[in-house]
Structures are given as C-alpha cells and as structure tokens.
Design goal:
This protein has six helices and ten strands. With 228 residues, the protein is α/β, with parallel strands linked by helices. The protein has one domain: P-loop containing nucleotide triphosphate hydrolases (Rossmann fold), CATH 3.40.50.300. A hairpin with a 2-residue loop joins strand 9 and strand 10. It binds adenosine-5'-triphosphate and magnesium ion.
Length: 228
C-alpha cells in the first residue's frame, strides 16, 4: 500500500481570460497527503483553494500536471471510471452546498447510497443516524429551500460522509455555522480520521480550526507556500 493516498506533481490550472495571458489559478502544485491525516488548506480569497480541491477530487481536469490517488494515475481513467471512483472513494462538501432542490433532507443525504445501487433497507438506519449526528433529525422531510444556510451546510456534510469515503474534501464546511455547530462538525471529522483512518482535506479561514487538524497547507496566488 502506498504511503500517500493522494499526490500531485506540477499541477497547473489556468483559466482563459479576455486578456492575452491566461489566469493562473494554480501554479505547479506538489502536494502529498498521507493516509489518515487531517489537513487544513488555508489562504486568502482567490488564492486557488476551491480550484485545487476541484482538481484533486476529480471534479475538474487540470491544464497540466499529475494526480495520483490510491496509487492510480487518474488521468488514465475514463469519464465513467472517474464517476465510479468518486462515488466509491471520495466525498465532497461543496462551498455552496450543491444540494438537490427537489429532494428533501433525508433524500439528499441518501443520494450517494442510491447511486451505488443500495436499497433503502440497507441504508435507512445509517442515514437517520448521520442526520441525527449533525442535529437535523427534526427536519428530515424539509426541502433545502426550507433550511437555513448553516442547516444546508450540515446536510451537505452528512451527504459527503454517508458512504464513508476514503478521502473527504471539505470546502469551508464550517463557514456558515455558529461556533457550537462548527465544533460538532469538526469533532465528527476528527473522529472519522482517528477511528476509521479516513483522510480529510478541509479549506478553512478560521484560525480556531487549526487545533483539530494535523497540519496546515497554505496557498498564495495559486502557489503552495508551506507544507510541513
Ligand atoms: N471558472 C473560472 N473562470 C475564470 N477564472 C476562475 C474560474 N474559477 C476560478 N477562477 C479564478 O481562479 C482564482 C482562484 O479561485 P478559487 O475559487 O479557487 O479561490 P478560493 O481560494 O477558493 O477563494 P475563496 O476563499 O473566495 O473561496 C481566482 O482568481 C478566480 O477568479
Ligand atoms: Mg473557494
């Protein structure tokens, strides 16, 4: 088994702009994530944090560079294989939650289970349990539009971890939570790492969140600053 569950080499992502030169969102990023570590990704707004997470979670394709997950060169995967890989191995908490508006809270959380072809009898208990853990047991039948931003964020977290992903990518998962709800979420993430050996990379702006993680990686203007 490889020591690193995820690594990148010379990762570049540029966006085409109306100007003669492209916008460099990411410049030559080399990162290694060990199995079972909890890493915080920090940096100013626009430094490339979400762009980086999108690349390594296979939601986007880099302009150039190499990404390896669980020993696999992911550039070699077909679209179908990438989708299956994401479903089985990766969980993602989106900065804007990305819940399905027509589905209620319970159905949103159960979605990854259904996508894996599981039946309700197989996942029902787990879904109720995880919803309870994020404190939303009384809101299971509500649509996302009937929930506050912080509540939607917690639904997004529950959905991302229901499949027990090997790697969890969380883009500012506590940004809209009060400090009590944030502590609940951070405790859950810490437990996923300590008890189940999951690997987590979390974008955050909160200095307080640092005490939950094993190390901090900084991005500045699309470049990696430090990674101890
Ligand atoms: N689709 C796009 N087209 C063009 N430029 C983009 C696109 N997405 C992001 N960018 C640019 O890439 C840079 C990095 O953006 P990114 O969203 O990764 O930043 P971030 O660190 O996540 O910021 P925040 O803390 O505000 O979420 C920014 O300059 C942004 O304007
Ligand atoms: Mg962002």
């Amino acid at each position: 088994m490889e020591k690193y569950i995820l690594q990148t080499k010379d990762l570049v992502r540029t966006y085409k702009a109306d100007t003669p030169s492209p916008v460099y969102a990411l410049k030559d990023i080399d990162v290694q994530l060990r199995r079972g570590e909890f890493v915080a990704l920090m940096g100013r707004s626009g430094s490339g944090k979400s762009t980086f997470l999108h690349q390594i979670a296979l939601l986007d394709r880099p302009t150039s560079g190499y990404i390896e997950i669980d020993g696999i060169d992911v550039s070699k995967l077909s679209e179908t294989e990438r989708a299956e890989f994401r479903l089985k191995m990766l969980g993602y908490v989106f900065q804007d939650y990305a819940l399905i508006p027509e589905l209620n809270l319970y159905e949103n959380v159960a979605l990854p289970m259904r996508a894996l072809g599981k039946r309700k009898i197989q996942y029902d208990k787990d879904v109720h349990e995880i919803i309870k853990r994020v404190g939303l047991q009384d809101r299971e039948k509500n649509l996302p539009s009937e929930l506050s931003g912080g509540e939607q964020q917690r639904v997004s977290i529950a959905r991302a971890i229901i499949n027990k992903p090997d790697i969890l990518f969380a883009d500012e998962p506590t940004a809209n939570l009060d400090s009590e709800a944030a502590a609940v979420v951070l405790d859950i993430m810490r437990e996923l790492v300590d008890k189940y050996g999951q690997t987590i990379i979390m974008v955050t702006h909160e200095d307080d969140d640092k005490k939950y993680v094993d190390r901090v990686v900084w991005l500045k203007d699309g470049k990696l600053q430090s990674s101890q």
